[in-house]
Amino acid sequence: MLKTITRMLIIPCMAGMLSGCWDNKDINHRSLPITMGVSMVGETYKVILLIPEPVERTTKVRIVYGIGKTITEAVDHISRDMESDIDMLHMKVVVFDKPSAEKGMTDSISGFMRARDISPKAVVVICDEDIDHFFKRTKQTMEPSGTTLYNYFEKNAGWSPEVALTRIWQVYRSIYSFTRDVAIPVVKSGNDTMMQHLGSAIIKNGRMVGQISSEETLLFNAFNGESAHGKIEVMQHSSVLIVSNTMSHESKVVNNQMYMTSRINLNVSILETSSHVTNDSIKKELDSTLTDRCNALLAKIQSSEADILGLGQFFRNKIPRAELKNWRTEYLPRLKMDFSVRTVIQNEGNLKTPRRK
Amino acid sequence: MVPFLQEMKSRLGSNDDFFIQRVFLLDKPVVIMGLSTLIDVVNTKSALLEYIEQSFPSGKTVEEVIKAMSTTPHIEINEAISAITKGKLIIYFEVTKQRVIVDPIMKLLNRSIESPTNENVFQGSMSSFTEDIDTNIGIARKEFNSRRLVVKSYYTGSLQKKRLSLLYDEERVDRKLVNQVIDRIENNQDKEINHIQNLTKVMGFNSMELIPKFNTTELPQEAANSIRKGRVVLFIDRIPFALVLPSLLWDMFALENDKNLPKPIMISLRLLRVVGVLATLIMPGLYVALVSVNPEVLRIELALSIAQSRDGVPYPALIEIIMMLVVLELVIEASIRLPRSIGPTITMVGGIILGQAVVAAQLVSNLLIIILAATTIANSTVVGVQNSLSIRLFKYLIVVLASIYGVLGILGGMVLVSAYLAGLTTFGVSYLYINPAERRRDS
């Protein structure tokens, strides 16, 4: 009996000792930065953390800076100087400034993946202005709730289909993939709104090599299955709401020449139009607008040799493995692509009276 | 005086309520004796005289009357004494020196059948078991009126004889189970049974089990339903509820009375109880895990507001929650103990302490108060108070594990609790069976 009791006492003690539960810090003793800015000044990293701090019924946003030879070192410096522990697991957005993005983010991104103290789900953003200024402006607009920046990229909050949504793990994947690159949103601080969306950066092997516009990003998103739902397409004299879109692709290789046929099926509903426009002309216009945009996007991709649409994925089983690593440089620029758009006008809005044909 | 009377007097005379009276039956002197606290003497006497006058036409002799009344020819002195302590009347015929044990008119020492006090019934029959075992068996017979109902009674104990009754459905019951129960009772007839712990010992169960091996119920319809399902119901004299063997996990969630409601409602009510049990087990642990070990699981908005609510709280989450849980247990215990007239005071004071003052003093975060309130409410959804007690105890295990291992600890705790429940058996019937009778029919 005594033996059992001793055992029963020792086991909980061991559970306490071996688990290291004294390392647990309560949530009010942790700082939860939600945004990190990374900028390279020469060979050193400058890290900016944006930490929302609850104060007396509201949230104050605090910006802290750290400098170090590595990002970890910089964060360590910040942590050392702060009164609470920095817990990076709530990091939602990682902002690189444009010069460092052009220089290459490979090391930082692999560092994030390796260290695991930042969630691989964090969104990567490039800021097209001085990063200090960007954060200062952001702080001003963020003040009451503290999470605005992150809401900008939240699908159930402020995200819109023109904004690319690329996570750390996707950037990491693109670094090591032969056939897939990513696009990262490029933003700068706005005047009235918190941010101004400038388009997306084309990232090749962790380096920014070009830029596409917001409209082209919409196509990029549609291509990646991030539905274009809810997008208002403005044409010369009418605008439509894309209710749903599907895409089908076919790829073939003939005489070492790559061909690809992509069909975009759009279900749209008309929002605004003038009375003399017929459904047929809307369809036609939509077709030509989208095809032009797709071709322009393709041309950009081909010239920058970065496959952000992941077109190479369709040829992985058609090109020998040994050749695959040359996809971006040799095959992609020669790819011949044929876009076609099929539009179904699902309904004509909420009007009951039929439109004049 | 005759030796029998003298012996009785010397053995019981020290009791002030022991009476010996001489009366005349059919003109023959007899002595009646008994305990005046148990017997209504006046009414008994008149009833006795009336009975003899009516049942025996004139001309009968006392001897014939004795023959007709007594069941055993000769009664020993010990037998007579134990009959008296049970509340029987002894008639001693002075001429023939014979004695007879007679059922007297008892004083009413039992409460009437009332509505249940420990379990509330929603739209169902309202009577509940009382302390008197005969009444209980009677109620059970009314609920399950079938010739298949078997009632077996035993007297156990050496100091006092306690009556124990076994009720079961002759056809549906597991014979092995009944035989085992009967064996246990017969082999331990010298043991006292004053409470359930005694009975647990008699049945040979481990007395350190957290889950009671008997499902206790105050409601006759629940007991009758258990009998119908092939389980054994035990009654002990002076214990106002039925003990159902074997006890099953499902008893925690299902009430026979639910079947008075439409089926979808019954299912959702039972689901609600399952949710209640899970919430009781998990919520306090989840609070500790999310606040101190795995805050990354929370959405950032929630994390910030929790951090804000904990701002200035001096203790780590584990101490905080255990402190408040203990206060809450004290409130619950106090409100059971207190007389009904003072009870509301505790509720009010407890409400103020828990609801306002503790938060205002920044001893605990106000989220914790929400968690505690939800836990306590959820805990009360379980059927049967005895079941909610064990669940209440299990949640501490999970809180401690959660404080060490976080969300993983909660999972570990749940696995431990499940494994413990799965390991319980009562006479070879696992605690997790939903309907043991059906299993037997299949096999």
Automatic annotation (TrEMBL), chain B:
- Tell me the protein family, please: Belongs to the GerABKA family.
Q: What protein does this entry describe?
A: Spore gernimation protein GerA
Is the Amino-acid biosynthesis keyword given for this protein?
Answer: no
Which controlled-vocabulary keywords does the entry list? Membrane, Transmembrane, Transmembrane helix
| Any one cellular-component term (Gene Ontology) | membrane
What parts of the sequence cross the membrane? 271-293, 313-332, 344-361, 393-411, 417-434
Looking at the keywords, is Membrane present? yes
- Which InterPro entries does the record cross-reference, listed alphabetically? Spore_Ger, UPF0353/GerABKA_families
Biological processes annotated in GO: spore germination
